[in-house]
Sequence to fold (291 residues):
Amino acid sequence: MPESDTSKIEKNFYLDVPQKSEVFFLKGSNSYDWGMKNRLARIFDAASGKTVMLAFDHGYFQGPTTGLERPDITILPLAPYADALMLTRGVLRSVIPPSLNKATVLRASGGPSILKELSNEYIAMDMDDALRVNACAVATQVFIGGEYETQSVMNLTKLIDQGLKVGMPVLGVTAVGKELTRDANYIRLATRMCAELGAAFVKTYYVPGFETVTAACPVPIVIAGGKKLPELEALEMAYRAIDQGASGVDMGRNIFQSEAPVAMIKAVRKVVHENMKPTQAYEMFLDLKNR
Ligand code: 5RP
Fold:
């Protein structure tokens, strides 16, 4: 028998307080189901609306990239400072302790190595496995203008359909290969296509005119870091991207290839979450590095 409610305290139904209906904090994301929003809220900080994702999935086509030869040694010390980790399921299972309790964005596409045509990718993981490892999102690349453009776009839409069934957000990553242009016109096209096709958020590169890219994309955009830059330049790029409407960074080489990776990720966090000016963040970086 369940216990009966024998409390003498008078029940209070707060009749004069209407129940609030929260508007979800993330751009363009209010109409999703609870699970999808909950996963996004683990990637993006609800207070700042931003995220610092640490990308170290490069090995899925590039093998042991510089700085990622031993992710157990180089990445684990950085993980506590990231809001989310972008990685492959292989490194997740082999290196990342489940007790770390970090949001993860799983690389879900693959196929060709750097020795071949990179746009010839397929979906390379099952949505069941993303659920099994409690991922917060899955990611696939689109190669707009690339040789296998349509195939890569179909990878995205298939993942989105599978993701919608289980509440898994899909990150559309816009590839910029050797033959693809990197300007606002191209990035607007590629990011908007990802959003129109249903990606919950989009990863792309910072370009001049970036405010038109974020304005034309109805879902959050995070920027990739790209090739390693001097730390101040990387912080300036992050600052400009946030100032021009980005919802965060998904940065890899500019963090793990830095001469002081922990100092760098801490400085990036200040820029992204607290709008710290890049020069001040750089001073912080130098100070932490020299300690
Ligand atoms: C590869 C990816 C990588 O995760 C990402 O672009 C690499 O980050 P970074 O450019 O900052 O090293 O999506 O296609």
The first strand starts at residue 51 and ends at 55. DSSP finds twelve helices and ten strands in the chain.
